[in-house]
Design brief:
- This protein has 292 residues and is α+β, with helices and mostly antiparallel strands.
- The protein contains eight helices and 18 strands.
- The protein has helices at 25-32, 40-45, 49-62, 95-100, 154-157, 173-176, 183-186, 232-240; strands at residues 2-8, 11-18, 21-24, 69-70, 76-78, 87-91, 110-114, 119-120, 135-136, 139-145, 161-168, 171-172, 192-200, 210-215, 218-224, 250-252, 276-281, 285-290.
- The strands form three sheets. Strands 1, 2, 3, 4, 5, 6, 7, 8, 10, 11, 13 and 16 form a twelve-stranded mixed beta sheet that branches. Strands 15-14-17-18 form a four-stranded antiparallel beta sheet, with no helix packed on it. The chain has a two-stranded antiparallel ribbon with strand order 9-12.
Length: 292
Amino acid sequence: MKLLQFVKENQVQLGVKTEQGIFNVKEAGKVFEVSVPTSVQQVITLEDGQGLLQSLINRAAEEGRKELFFAEEGIQYAPVVSTPEKIICVGLNYVDHAKESKMDIPTSPILFSKFNNALAAHLEDVAIPDGVEKMDYEAELVVVIGKEAKSVSEEEALSYVFGYSVGNDVSSRDLQFRTGQWLLGKSPDGFAPVGPYVTTADEVDPNNLQVECRVNGELRQSMNTQSMIFNCATIISYISQYMTLKPGDVIYTGTPDGVILGYPEEKQVWLKSGDEMVISIEGLGDLKNVLK
């Protein structure tokens, strides 16, 4: 199942991508006079939120309720998660990316964070902060946690995942390396685009997904998640040893090689206003954002 959040009448609403179009969960609740989840977070926390949505979709199809489905074209997307307690990112999680960044290959996952202000939606413009000159992209598989995880093993870690999405760890390299801490260059407003959907875990093998980034149509990154140094299960287990992961938490799992930072200095042409970044992950969708 592919879930999304969209803005209608100045409210963030919940939808499900289907062959008939986007299923409007709020309207289905009104028509069928039932209580429905209003966000992806509520779907995650309900005992069988996914099952409830599927039963509503089936009922709408059986009863010919075409008005509960609408065309995806033209909708205003919202980030697929709205209020995660934690946005955790993994640095240097592909060997070639570590090498191009001229950094040591990590022996443990390198963790840093973003904040909710950084969340951005599919098709949302991302503002370049004043004075920033070295804007970069990072295509990443995003994990959305489905239930509380504390000290879980690698063997059981993936059972704590609700779903997966497409992310872009937008980075200002001049701010990132201004000091020894990366945070400032990673968490300005809009620097964590995610979406357009979250695909439930039952449909995804996170260990075999093609991840790509195109800038203005030019392929810049292309790698399979098989090449991760630390796979999703390892990352989730590792984090959970030290902090409790909560439903709705988000993990950006690292980017492959091909970022501008890894180019020879004389070939580094940093992103500028008007540049289009498209992150594509096999089976999960395309995430598009333009810098302004």
